[in-house]
Amino acid sequence: MKPLSRPDRDDALIAGAGLLGGLVLWAVGLHTQGGRPLGGAWVLVPLVLMAGLELLRRTAPQTALVIGTCALVADQFTSGSLATVVMFTDLMYAAVLYGTPAAARRIPVTTGLITVGVTIGFYAWFHKPEALLIGVVTGLISFTPATTGALVRNHREAAESARLRAEQTALLAELDRSQAVVAERARMARELHDMVANHLSAIAIHSTAALSLDDPATTRQALSVIRENSVDGLAEMRRLIGLLRDTTGRDEPTAAPTLAGLDALLAQARTNGADSGLGFTLDDRRADDGPLPAPVELAAYRIVQESLTNALKHAAPGTVEVVLTRLDGLLTVRVTSPYGDRPGPRAPGSGAGLIGMHERTELLDGTFAAGPETATDGSKIWQVRAQLPAEEGKLST
C-alpha cells in the first residue's frame, strides 16, 4: 500500500485557520441555520472532519472532496458553521486544480448540472422566487470554486507549455548556433587550404629540389619560384586574416575567383611544375548559355585549383588536362593527370584537399568522384570529376 505523502505546510495552515475560525464562530454562537435535529457541539464534528481533509487537498484531492461532500451533508443536520462551508469550497477548488485531468474536466460540468438541477427542483417544489436563492448558494459553494480551479489550472498549463516551448526554442537556437559555428569553421578550413596549399606545395617541391641538386642555376630558379609563391601565399593569408578580423558587420562584397581566371591559374601551375615534367592544358567546351551562379563559379575554380595542386605534388610526368562542359543544366569539371611513380621531390599530402572538394560539391547538391582510372590508350590516370548545378533554380537553399 502506498504511504500518504506528508501534508504541505500551506495546507496545514489552511486547516488550522479553518478549524480555529470555526471554533471561534461556535464559541460566540454564530451559526448558519437553526431548528436542526443535532444541536449543541454536534456542529464541531463536520468542522473537525473538514479541517482534517484540508491536509489532503494536494495529496489526495478527489478523496478529500468525496468525504468533504459527506461532511457538508452532515453539517446540514446541525446548526451549521460558515467555516465548514468555506473549507468545502476550498476542497472543491483544490480537486480541480490538483486532481487528474479527467477530474478537472468532469467536476465543473457536474457541479454546473447540480446547480441547475437544484435551482429548478426547489423552485418547482416551493413555487416561490426565494427558492432560487438555494440554487445561487449551491452554485457559490460548488460551481464557482470548481470553475475558478479550472481557470487557474488552464493558466498554469498554458504557462508551463509556454515555458517548455521557450526552452525548446532556446535549445534549437543553440543547436543552430553550434551547427553554424561548425559549418563556418569547415568553410574557413576549406578556404584556407585552397588559397594557401597551392603556394606551400610549390615552395616545398622547389625547396627540396634546391637542396637535392647542386646546381646554381637550378637553385636560383627554385628560389625565384619559392619567393613568388611565398609573396602570393602571404597576400592570400593577409586577406583571409583581414576578413576574419573584420568586426564592422558590413557585408562588403569581396572579389571571388571565377572560371575566367583559369588561364592564369594554369600559367602559375606551369611555372611551379616547370621542373616536374608536367604540362597543363585547358579545354573549355562550354556553350554560351549565360553566366553561372557565383557559388558554382567559386566551387568549380577551387576544385580545379586543388586538382592542379595535387597534380604538382603527386602526378607522374605528362599532361594535366582540365575539361569544362555544360549540358542539361549541369557544369562538369574534369581534371586528369598521369598516375604512377613520380621521380624527383614530392610534397606530402594529408587528403584534406579531396575532402574539401567533396564538401564543396555536396553543398551545391552536386556529385563528386576522384580516383585512378584507365585511359583509352591503356595508360593509368588520376581523374577528378565534379558535376555542379549550372542554374539558380537547381541550387540547394
Description of the molecule:
- By secondary structure, this protein is an alpha+beta fold.
- The protein has helices at residues 9-28, 44-53, 61-75, 82-98, 101-126, 132-212, 216-245, 262-272, 294-314, 352-363; strands at 278-284, 318-327, 330-338, 367-374, 380-389.
- A hairpin with a 2-residue loop joins β2 (318-327) and β3 (330-338).
- α2 packs parallel to α4 and α9 (294-314) packs antiparallel against α10 (352-363).
- The radius of gyration is 43 Å and the shape is rod-shaped.
- 28% of the residues are buried.
Layout of SSEs?
Elements (H helix, E strand, L loop, with lengths): L8 H20 L15 H10 L7 H15 L6 H17 L2 H26 L5 H81 L3 H30 L16 H11 L5 E7 L9 H21 L3 E10 L2 E9 L13 H12 L3 E8 L5 E10 L8
Parallel strand pairs: 1-2
Antiparallel strand pairs: 2-3, 3-5, 4-5
Helix pairs in contact: 1-2, 1-4, 2-3, 2-4, 3-4, 4-5, 4-6, 5-6, 6-7, 6-9, 6-10, 8-9, 9-10
Summarize, please.
The protein is of the alpha+beta class and about 400 residues long.
Distinctive features:
397 residues; alpha+beta; 5-stranded mixed β-sheet; 10 helices; rod-shaped
Q: What overall form do the CA principal axes indicate? A: rod-shaped
Total number of helical segments?
10
Total DSSP E strands: 5
Give the strand order, joined by hyphens, for the main sheet.
Answer: 1-2-3-5-4
Note the beta-strand portion: 5-15%
Helix content: 55-70%
Distance between the termini: 60 Å
Report the average pLDDT across residues.
82
Radius of gyration: 43 Å
Which structural class matches the secondary elements? alpha+beta
One letter per element, helices H and strands E, the order comes to: HHHHHHHHEHEEHEE
Which residues sit in consecutive blocks of at least 5 with pLDDT less than 50? none
- Biggest sheet, in brief? 5 strands, mixed
